[in-house]
Structure formats: C-alpha cells, structure tokens
TrEMBL record:
Pathway: Nucleotide-sugar biosynthesis; ADP-L-glycero-beta-D-manno-heptose biosynthesis; ADP-L-glycero-beta-D-manno-heptose from D-glycero-beta-D-manno-heptose 7-phosphate: step 1/4; Nucleotide-sugar biosynthesis; ADP-L-glycero-beta-D-manno-heptose biosynthesis; ADP-L-glycero-beta-D-manno-heptose from D-glycero-beta-D-manno-heptose 7-phosphate: step 3/4
Pfam families: CTP_transf_like (PF01467), PfkB (PF00294)
Catalyses which reaction(s): D-glycero-beta-D-manno-heptose 1-phosphate + ATP + H(+) = ADP-D-glycero-beta-D-manno-heptose + diphosphate; D-glycero-beta-D-manno-heptose 7-phosphate + ATP = D-glycero-beta-D-manno-heptose 1,7-bisphosphate + ADP + H(+)
CDD domains assigned to the protein according to its UniProt record, in alphabetical order: RfaE_like
Name of the protein in question: Bifunctional protein HldE
Region (Ribokinase): 1-332
Enzyme superclass (EC): transferase
EC number: 2.7.1.167, 2.7.7.70
Binding-site residues for ATP, renumbered to this chain: N201, L202, R203, E204
Function, in words: Catalyzes the ADP transfer from ATP to D-glycero-beta-D-manno-heptose 1-phosphate, yielding ADP-D-glycero-beta-D-manno-heptose.
Amino acid sequence: MLLSSIVKSYKKVRVLCVGDVMLDHFLYGKVERISPEAPVPVFNFQSEKRMLGGAGNVVANLHSLGCAADLICFIGDDAAGREVRLLLEAVCENPLPVVVPGFPTIEKTRVIAGNNHLLRIDNERRFDGTADLCGFLGPELDERVKAADIVLLSDYAKGMLSPERCRRLIEACRSARRPVIIDPKGDDYSKYARATVVKPNLREFNQATGMDCRPTEPGFREKLCVGAKKLFEKHGIENLLVTLSEHGMAFVSAKNPDEVFQLPTEAREVFDVSGAGDTSLAAFGASLAAGADIQDAMKLANVASGVAVGKLGTSCVTGEEILDALSRRRSSSGPGWKQKRKIVSRREAAEVAAQCREQGRKVGFTNGCFDLLHQGHLHSLMQARQECDVLMVGLNTDASIKRLKGPERPIQDEKTRALLLASLEFVDYVVMFDDDTALPLVDAIRPDLILKEGYTIDRWPEAQFVESYGGRAVTLSRLEGYSTTSTIRRMKG
C-alpha cells in the first residue's frame, strides 16, 4: 500500500482516545536584561497561546490529520477545564470530558524567550482514587469502542488511566476486536497486559525492563529483544514500538521476538520536541486504522514526528504536511538530501514565519533568480542574514524566469538553483514561486524585514507592502563587478 494512499485514507478513520488531558499555556517574550532586584532575567511579555496538551494533543493531531476523533478524559470544575472543553469541541465529534470535583484541570505554563524555555509552571493533582464517574466504564464505553476503528490510550501518569481503568479499556477493545495502542508511563506494565501495541520511549523501556539499551552501542538490538521478551512473557503484550529520539524507532513483535525493525529519524531541523510523541502516536494509530501494516505505520509516524519537531511549541501536523515530506523524501536521493530539507512550500514557509513571530524571532526575506550563484549573491545573502534571525529566500521557478528574461534563461534548472541556495549556511529556507513578482509570496509569509540590493522603495512594491503592516525594508549594498548576465557573456566568449 502506498504511503501517500494511507495518508489520504485518514479521512475515513474514526479513533477513540482515552487519557490524561492538560491545558498547555505558552507565554512568549524576550529577555534583554537581568533584574536589579535579584539575579534573575527580566521577561518582557509579548504574546500567549493556549492549546490542548497530553491526550488532548493526540486528538488535536488526529483531527489535523483528517481523522474523526473523540476523547474520554478527566477535567476539573474550573476555568481551565471550561477552556479544555471548548478546545475539545473544536477537534472532536462527541468528546467526554468528565468533571472531577475537588481536582484542578491539569495546566502547564511555559515561559519562552526567543527559542529558549526559561520556566515551566505546573498546576496539577493526580486523579487518584476517583471512582467510575458518570459511568463511562459501563455500556457507553463499549459503544464508543465499537464505533471506533482503533483505540489509543495516552498515559501521562496523572491518574486517569489507573490499572483498573486500563484493564477495563483493554478488555472492551479485545471484546470488540479493536486494536488498542498505548503510550505508557511508569514501570508497571501489568496495567497494559494484552494490549495490541505498547509504545514506550527508550528511557521508559529501560525502566520497565531493567535493561540498559543504547542505540549507539554494540549489541543494542540483542538487548532490545531480551527486554521485549520479558514484557511479552510477563504481560502478554503483543507488540512493542520503542521510540529512540534522534535514532528513530524500533519495533519488536511477540510473534518474532528475535527480530527488530528499526527506522532512522526523519527530522529536518529540531526547533522543539514538545508534543512530538503525541504526534507520533496519532499518526501511527491513524495509519493502522487506515489499513497500513506495522512497518508502513511506523514510517508515517516517523515522518509525522519529524515534521512536528521542526515546529515551535506543541504543534499539530496535517496530512498535507506528511504528503509534502514524503514528496521531498522521494526526491532526496544523492548527496544533497540534507540540503533539500530546507526547501519548503509556500504554506510551510508561512507557518514557520508565524511560529517565529510568536517566539519574537525576526524573519527576513529576499528573492531572486540566482541563476549562476556568484560572489555578489553571497555578499547580499550574508548581509541579509546578519539583519534577521531566520532568512527565507524566494526563488523564481524556471517558468517565471523565462517570462522575465527570455527563452534562453535560466542556465540552471530550478532544482539545481534551489539546492545550491539551500547548501549555504546563512540561508535557512528556500521557497520557489511561479508568479511574475514575489508579492504573493511576501503576502503569505509576512516577513519582519525584506532585503534586496539596488532597489529604492518607490520601485519596490514588495517593500511598500511590508512597510504597510509595520515591517522594515533594507536596501543591501552591492558588490560591484559581479552579475549573472556578464558571467554568461564571458562564457560565450
């Protein structure tokens, strides 16, 4: 089954998620000085964002992928709980947030300056000792399980997924013949007995098995199998999917406990790992429900988590982003594959720019044909990068260059030109555009700065537009004696 076909089938999938929900609260700003009152940084607040975290982030990702998703969770009778309820209604068809009297909704507030986490403030109490509130473990649970194609348990050890509730959920799934995938917490895997797949990270796996598996050391796979057999024999778990951080993920099945299927990581550039495990769980579960085998589901989960860590903050991944990543992957053979990861679509560039703005990072934009990359280009690009935190370069496609410069141009095709630009350390992203001007692309990205050599504002519509919303236009100095036209002329003799 083609990976792209699996992604396109997400819209036919219905998923039930059960687990610990939380409200993720992000405070963004800058730190430019130390307080005179105490040796602590002064945080200058700029913006904030609230979103679903934990199991809530799993269902938000399922919704973003195109699936129909629902969540059973615990919340408190408070403002944060009411906000969680509203956020769930936007991504679920029929969520069941159960209000637990006397407990606060779990809320995590992160203080972020630039791309650095300064502080996290947690407001939580474990939901220990709570009874079967609202009777959701009775007939309603059985009906919800039967209506789903797959069930995901997202355990953050906050008390929602107690051993008794886990066993009841797994029993309901087995009775309805629905796969149950578990993202575990802690070292007591008896609560996950007879699950279809348990998905620990490597630290959790080592903790649960008493092993010391390290992907970089000899004998890693053999040790992984030894640990997996312990869990298979003791708890009747059918499969283990172990995530290995920057080393990808590894799968072991109780049917073939001496074999390991391992995949490398798919991350382009790591900005933030927050929520990447939730994204991986969502994509893995959605893929299995869409008819993928374990290996293909792993591949898509790996791609999805690679996209997620390239974003800032707890972020959702769309099916379109996975398809884009798969497209880049197919065209990324050869020595330039790492550089090709910096070549992004217009939509991706706009999303990155929006995330950078939330973090207080300045996005710069310049554009051109860059037909024969020469020292004059390098001089301008280096100047541009010094003015901003992230430099995006708009690149004319072959078709747009022919319209602008005639049928004999470009000399080099757009893929070659894009790869050469992406190979430069001072270029962060390359975005191709087919329009006669860069204005539509600038409108999509909304950079903080636009930079170019040789243009005055009255002859520069893109700069006028950037200044209209409060951005800044910078005219770069030209390095004389270098131009593509003169280089072509010399080549022709």
